[in-house]
Predict the structure of MFS transporter.
Amino acid sequence: MTHTAAHLPSKRSILLLACAAFSSTSAFRVLDPALPQLSQEFSITTGEAAKVITWFVFAYGVMQFFYGPVGDRFGKFRTLAFATLACAIGNLVAASASSFEGVLAGRAMSGATAAAIVPLSMAWIGDHVAYEDRQVTLAQFMTGTILGMSAGLVIGGALTDTLGWRWSFLFLAAMYGIVGIWLLTQLNDVPEVPPSTQGLQLVAPIVSVFALPWARIVLLVVLIEGALVFGGLSFVPAFLQKTQDMSSTMAGLITAFFGLGAMLYVLRAKWLVSRFGELKLTFAGGWVLGACYLLYLIGPHWSWAIFASVFCGLGYYLLHAVLQTNATQMAPQVRGTAVSLFASFLFLGQALGVAAGALVVDTVGIQWVLIGACAALPILGMAFSCALSKRDELTP
């Protein structure tokens, strides 16, 4: 895909999208450190408390089937701008809920609206950046997603230990409101691919993506990746609180070092891609992730968990960055739909992983969630690396 200079996105545009992504990913991890407190307050098990993660992620994943076609039809930047502002409502519902069911309803609402932000941002970048430069630009955009994930863990833990977990939702509502208004003020200043004139079609674009063999492989791999990586990571703060006798704040802070490892990837993305290539990056990513979950389990002191979190973030983006770059190119004619499906499968995988992890926690113990991720992630990295070597045969 070629573009004139006038249509290339500015650094300001990427910064705006990164800020929106920061808001979105903060919401994912903000309640991870609060699971023990939610369990106590509502007299439920830790596994049941994890529904606050599952409901958000499930709504996020399901709504991708809607936002992709809407973004292709009405404009990706416009759609994600309005969705960002709408996210504030669901967080206010959760903050004011008097029952656990009310909290879940608010989480589902906020997940359903946050669903537009990251995938449509990626699709918008795909529209305006050539493939050879796209992985580096996506790495710059990922700064917002990484910082948001880490900030959510730290802020969620700190607020849980001080003002209470409800303040996490008030924080998110304020952040979504500010960023949403900021995005709306920029609608006339950012480029957009001309919207489709064929009307809103929800089914046909999705079918066209699934018709592509390589797209099916990418979607399957990211589904499994989401289940394994975040199905494990969601329970790391609770695991550290149980095994290391630490506070929510400390457990959240240690897990948030995931973001530092991810930032190491962002800072060295251009060198890593040119030096090693996609096959070696995905192969290494799976093995690094597996080693990190092993370190969480056997580290002789809590400080080892810091190293595990750092390299978990690095390993994840070694694998995931290649996946998401391929997602932006697997169906260029319906890029918004393709990338939204990618996000859908990622977060549906997370929902399945957390739900399965909750069952494991309540039956055989929290450590077995981490053992499963440790064993399976190296296999996933090797399998996708092998698939990449045959990509040309699977791409029309």
Observations:
- The radius of gyration is 20 Å.
- Residues 26 and 149 are 5 Å apart (CA to CA).
- The domain at 5-394 is CATH 1.20.1250.20 (Growth Hormone; Chain: A;).
- The chain is about 80% helix and 0% strand.
